[in-house]
Amino acid sequence: MYDRDRGRDRGDRGDREMHKAQCSDCKQECEVPFKPSEDRPVYCKDCYQKHRPPRRDRY
């Protein structure tokens, strides 16, 4: 979807600043597109898939 305010496609994330973090589960180093905080867990891509809630059908 085109975002008129930003002048680009919403699906296009462009060059996002990545931050190094350590996965709270497997302890592997990973990069995330947000600045991690001490009070919230951070998961690598694989561990995030295990923790995210199941998707429900939209229809």
Give an overview in words.
0% of the residues are buried. The chain has a domain at 19-51. Strand 1 and strand 2 form a beta hairpin. The protein has one helix at 45-51, and strands at 2-3, 8-9, 19-22, 29-32. The protein is globular, with a radius of gyration of 15 Å. 12% of the residues lie in helices and 20% in strands.
| Cα separation of the termini | 20 Å
Q: Mean pLDDT across all residues, rounded?
A: 83
Question: Outline, from the CA principal axes?
Answer: globular
Strand-and-helix sequence, N→C? EEEEH
Indicate the topology.
Elements: E1 2-3, E2 8-9, E3 19-22, E4 29-32, H1 45-51
Antiparallel strand pairs: 1-2, 3-4
Keywords:
59 residues; alpha+beta; two-stranded antiparallel ribbon; 1 helix; 4 strands; globular
